[in-house]
Structure formats: structure tokens, C-alpha cells
């Protein structure tokens, strides 16, 4: 009995006495951060960037960011070099005038339409439900657009040319096999207007305004080998001011919009900002006023300011129209002909409507209102 009681007491002690605590494993928390962290998170939470660097993930991000910056720098350098080369060549063509200027515009119009940039964009709208014209109609329109500047220089007007061309395009579409669509007619006629009729106004502006401009010393000292004083006309001065102001507007809008742009201008082109547009307007007007002071045309500050505002509006809405076409086609650039700029339509979109507005201003507004 004593042995049984002793065993029972020992069992009770084993149950009542707690066992020694076991050591718990150390709890380790690991912060999982994308490598490299998104730029938005790094800007908002600097500690994430520091943690990524301590974890070994920041080195790859910094190297990728540096490579991206170098690539953007190379693209910008290429864009500037090509733009300067185009500007120098265009300046020489404008100064030469005559058939050289008309031939250059004809080549630009031929490339604009003949290289299938515009009609390629139109065909790109087919995926969204559009109906592009047949290819043979596109080729006919390209040839007509190439001839319009030459006919403008020879005849001085384009009314009969455009009307007859639109008639030919309509007949060819109506006689095609299958079911003709109204969208085919509208896109083809707009191609004639956009790629041939509007660029021809630059020929009228440069070569059609042959009144001598002797208000500046440059005209009296102009070399005889380049045409002498008679070569320095109102058309030459107006064309130089227009092209220089467009370049100033595009450059100011691009640089200031990239640095300070915050407010979107329109849904058609999300990258364009209100700050960039205001900078482009300021640069355009200042360039117009400065050149008008040097070249003594237009004579008044009011007329020079109005001319600069008109040039800016033409360049801005020309750019937006081209952005609208590319948006419907679902592409970023109209082509890849010009390095750093895209297609030729991407380069001349600001000039398409501006020539007609400038010619109308010089021909109608200045004599009528004297602004």
C-alpha cells in the first residue's frame, strides 16, 4: 500500500510541475520590394528606395534608369541635328524661290501622299471600322498632289485643279468593283485637300507676292548672283518670318511643356499641355515681332503681333489635326522616314494649314484692315 501511495504522489508531482519552456524560433520579417521599385513609389516613399538599395535591388534600377536617360539624350540629339539640317536646307530653298521652291514643295507633297503616310493612316482606321479607298485611288491622289504646287506656280490658282481632281476621284470610286462607300470618297478628297491643296499656298506665299521689299538694308545689299534687289520680295520676307516663327513655336512648346507642363490641353494629344501652348504662343509672337523689326515688314507692332498669333494658331491646329488622324489609325508616328522625328507628316504637320492662313492675312487682312 505504501508503494502504491508513493507512486501516486510522484505522478501528481509530474502533472503539477510545469515543464521548462522551449525556446521559440526567431521571427524574421522580410520586406519584399520590386527590383527596381516603381519610380512613382520611389518619389513618394524615399525609404522604399533606400530599402531597395540595402537589399541589393537598387543597383539594377539605377543602371536601367541611367540607360534610359542616355537613350533619351541620344534621341534628343538626333532630333536636334536632323531638325537643324532640315532647317538649313529649307532656308536655302526658300531663299532660292521660283521653280526650286515649287519643286521642293512638290517633292514634299509627293512624299507626303506617295509614301503612303496619309493613306497608310487611313488604311489603319480599317481595324476600327473605317473604309479606306482602294490602292489605285491612293496612287492617283498622290500623283495629283505632287502636281498641284507646279500648277499653282504656273497658273497662279488651284480652283480648277482641285475641282477636276475631286471629280476624277469620285468617278473612279463610283466605277470600282464592289460597293463604294462614302467614307472612301471623304478620305480621298480630304487627302487631296490636306496633301496637295494646302501645301500649295506656300508656293503662292513665296512666289505669288512679288512686290519688292526695300524697307531694309538687306535688300539693297543682296548679292546680284542671288537675284539682286528684285529677288527680295514681300513673299520672301513673309515666308522667312512664317517658317522661323513656326520653328520657334514648336521649340518653345516642346521644351517648356516637357519641363513645366502639368495641365493637359486636349484629349486628342495627351502629351500637349496648356503651359507648353502658352510658351509656344509667346515664342512665336516674339520671333515674329523681332524679325518684323529687323526686316521692316509688317511695319506696325499690331500687325506683327496679329501675324504671330495667326501663325501659332495654324501650327497648333495643324499638329492637332495630324494627331487626330494618327489616333484613329492607332499609331504613334506617321512613318519612320526622318530619324528622331518619325514620318514626314510628323515634321510638316505644323506647316500644312499655316501657309493658307499667312497668305490670306497678307493678301486680304493687311490691305483691308491695315493691321
Structure description:
The chain has 371 residues and is mostly helical. 71% of the residues lie in helices and 0% in strands. It is built from 16 helices and no strands. It has helices at residues 2-16, 39-44, 46-54, 58-96, 98-114, 117-124, 135-155, 159-174, 182-197, 200-207, 217-220, 234-260, 274-295, 301-329, 344-352, 354-369. It is globular, with a radius of gyration of 34 Å. The mean pLDDT is 79.
- Estimate the strand proportion: under 5%
Helix vs. strand class: mainly alpha
Distance between the termini: 131 Å
Low-confidence stretches: none
Order of secondary-structure elements:
HHHHHHHHHHHHHHHH
Largest sheet, described in full? none
Gyration radius, rounded: 34 Å
Q: If helices are DSSP runs of H or I spanning 4 or more residues, what is the number of helices?
A: 16
The count of strands amounts to 0
Q: How much helix, percentage-wise, in residues? A: over 70%
Shape from CA axes?
globular
Mean pLDDT: 79
Amino acid at each position: 500500500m505504501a508503494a502504491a501511495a508513493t507512486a501516486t504522489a510522484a505522478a501528481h508531482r509530474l502533472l503539477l510541475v510545469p515543464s521548462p519552456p522551449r525556446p521559440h524560433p526567431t521571427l524574421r520579417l522580410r520586406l519584399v520590394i520590386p527590383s527596381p521599385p516603381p519610380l512613382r513609389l520611389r518619389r513618394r516613399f524615399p525609404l522604399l528606395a533606400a530599402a531597395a538599395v540595402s537589399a541589393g535591388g537598387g543597383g539594377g534600377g539605377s543602371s536601367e534608369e541611367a540607360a534610359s536617360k542616355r537613350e533619351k539624350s541620344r534621341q534628343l540629339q538626333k532630333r536636334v541635328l536632323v531638325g537643324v539640317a532640315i532647317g538649313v536646307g529649307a532656308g536655302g530653298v526658300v531663299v532660292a524661290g521660283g521653280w526650286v521652291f515649287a519643286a521642293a514643295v512638290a517633292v514634299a507633297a509627293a512624299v507626303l501622299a506617295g509614301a503612303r503616310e496619309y493613306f497608310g493612316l487611313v488604311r489603319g482606321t480599317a481595324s476600327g471600322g473605317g473604309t479606306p479607298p482602294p490602292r489605285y485611288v491612293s496612287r492617283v491622289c498622290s500623283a495629283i498632289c505632287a502636281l498641284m504646287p507646279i500648277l499653282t506656280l504656273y497658273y497662279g490658282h488651284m480652283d480648277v485643279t482641285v475641282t477636276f481632281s475631286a471629280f476624277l476621284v469620285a468617278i473612279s470610286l463610283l466605277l470600282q468593283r464592289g460597293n463604294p462607300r462614302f467614307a472612301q470618297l471623304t478620305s480621298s478628297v480630304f487627302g487631296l485637300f490636306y496633301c496637295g491643296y494646302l501645301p500649295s499656298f506656300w508656293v503662292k506665299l513665296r512666289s505669288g507676292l512679288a512686290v519688292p521689299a526695300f524697307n531694309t538694308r538687306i535688300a539693297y545689299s543682296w548679292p546680284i548672283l542671288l537675284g539682286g534687289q528684285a529677288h527680295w520680295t514681300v513673299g520672301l520676307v513673309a515666308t522667312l518670318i512664317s517658317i522661323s516663327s513656326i520653328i520657334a513655336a514648336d521649340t518653345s512648346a516642346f521644351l517648356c511643356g516637357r519641363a513645366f507642363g502639368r495641365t493637359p490641353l486636349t484629349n486628342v494629344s495627351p502629351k500637349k499641355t496648356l503651359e507648353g501652348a502658352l510658351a509656344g504662343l509667346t515664342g512665336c509672337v516674339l520671333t515674329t515681332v523681332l524679325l518684323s523689326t529687323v526686316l521692316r515688314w509688317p511695319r506696325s507692332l499690331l500687325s506683327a503681333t496679329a501675324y504671330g498669333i495667326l501663325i501659332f494658331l495654324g501650327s497648333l491646329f495643324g499638329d492637332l489635326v495630324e494627331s487626330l488622324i494618327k489616333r484613329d489609325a492607332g499609331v504613334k508616328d506617321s512613318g519612320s522616314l526622318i530619324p528622331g522625328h518619325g514620318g514626314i507628316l510628323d515634321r510638316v504637320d505644323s506647316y500644312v494649314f499655316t501657309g493658307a492662313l499667312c497668305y490670306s492675312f497678307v493678301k486680304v487682312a493687311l490691305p483691308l484692315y491695315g493691321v
